[in-house]
């Protein structure tokens, strides 16, 4: 039932990969998942058409800005988890989705451009909190990191996040060939062949740890006020 959105105002931050990793890990645990593919590139919708998509994952690509909150509410009432891959702009769909999310995950690469894109989402969340009159829980996940090297740019981003007191997942998403292969061949990580995919075991371990952190934060969120409001209004 938790609603988890992935957002960054800059494209290419690893948002879609993070959303898909979480969705497939949750599905592997036997939970039902609805993914809203609000990214104009529709990478997750393309993935859904490939072989190997778990039967307990539903992908919705037809999204109506004026009724996105109702669509999310309906999905949250029917499936265990709702995951939203938002587009890299600030618009009505993004604002409405963020306002009804139990957790907003902001993927950021080790670059100043990604950090600025993430900062725009953080600013938007603060504005929305005043409108909906409750906190919108959020955190940052560092993406496409190098397992062996920490760059100067990444260190600068980490320092910026720390100074501003922003919650950052302990587990970054490391750049792995296995993650790219999901979008080429479909399915989840467990469906990939360790003989043909480099460091598949480490990719699985990384995805499990990342997902565990996200789910822990999503589960401790208090009962959603937006859900009660819509329930009374329906």
From TrEMBL:
InterPro entries to which the protein is assigned, alphabetical: DNA_Partitioning_ATPase, P-loop_NTPase, VirC1
Gene3D superfamilies membership: P-loop containing nucleotide triphosphate hydrolases
The protein, known as: ParA family protein
Organism of provenance: Roseibium limicola
Native organism taxonomy: Bacteria, Pseudomonadati, Pseudomonadota, Alphaproteobacteria, Hyphomicrobiales
